[in-house]
Write the structure tokens for this entry.
Amino acid sequence: MRGGISYKILNIITVLLMKNIIKNGTVLALGALIITISSLFWTTDIAYDTETIQHLEFGWPIAFEVQDQSRFDPPFPYPMNFGLGNPATFRWGAFMASFGLVFLILAFIWRVSMFMLRIFRR
């Protein structure tokens, strides 16, 4: 059914993207930045002993934040989450690589969706 609401919404989004009203690269970069930074809060690392709790890695798809959470004394093994206020090392190279990979994933999804929309509109 070509007159449905979902079709009209898809058509509006397609028109906006095709006419460069929304700059695709900027939107993709902003989305990649949000996903990469938010990955700190939804990734976990498992502390197996007192040595591994001093070197916990967070971030996706490449870990870019290393934290020392040795002030905690959990039962081992224990899944640990990113925490503010813990001694940390930020790896800029790994962050940029993660950002680049997420950007490429989003760009691929966008290109495939635009291809599918072109096929759907025929």
User: Anything to note?
Assistant: The two ends are 13 Å apart (CA to CA). The longest strand covers residues 44-47. The chain has one domain: 23-121. The longest helix spans residues 92-121.
